[in-house]
Amino acid sequence: MTAGLSATIANQILDSLFSAAAFTAPAASYIQLHTGDPGAAGTASVSSYTTRTAVTWAAAAGGSKSISAPVTVTASWSGTNNEVIRYVSFWSAVTGGTFVASDQLAAPVTMSTGAPLTLSSLSAPITPIAA
Predict the structure, then answer these.
(1) Does residue 130 sit within a domain?
(2) From residue 95, how far is each of 2, 9, 21, 69, 119 by CA, in Å?
(3) pLDDT tens, position by position, 2-45
(4) Most buried by CB count within 10 Å: which residue of 4, 24, 42, 127?
């Protein structure tokens, strides 16, 4: 399984922390839905609904960052009936952009055509954390 930080972002963070290299954080954050593991590039198993949805984040605590409000994907689309969403990927832009990370949902969600999908919680942990 390749869910987690993208290698590109992880390397940029490490270079910034330990080599004083400049790191520019993404200006925005978007999620994309996936039926399976998004892979190391975040592009595998993309849902038939390909539009990314903006998310906002609360302050980090305990080595994890959580969304500050539920995310609702509200588009009406065809082709998704009975599609099972298992993962999300995080991106820096609504199209294109940089793949930041991916995560597996706590429980799979079965889609119904035209029904909104609400994700009440998402988090982006960095582990392990020294105790």
Answers:
(1) no
(2) 22, 18, 27, 22, 21
(3) 788 888 998 999 999 999 999 988 899 999 999 999 999 999 99
(4) 42
Distance CA 17, CA 3 (A): 23
| Helix (H), strand (E), coil (C) string for the chain | CCCEECHHHHHHHHHHHHHCCCCCCCCCCEEEEECCCCCCCCCCCECCCCCCEECCECCCECCEEEECCCEEECCCCCCCCCCEEEEEEEECCCCCCCEEEEEEEEEEEECCCCCCEEECCCEEECCCCCC
Structural contact between residues 83 and 48, judged by C-beta atoms closer than 8 angstroms: yes
Q: Hey, how many other C-beta atoms are within 10 angstroms of the C-beta on 76?
A: 10
CA–CA dist 37, 88 (Å, integer): 9
Tens digit of pLDDT for each residue in 66-76? 899 998 887 66
% the chain with pLDDT above 70: 93
Q: How many domains does the chain have?
A: 1
Average pLDDT over the chain, rounded to an integer = 88
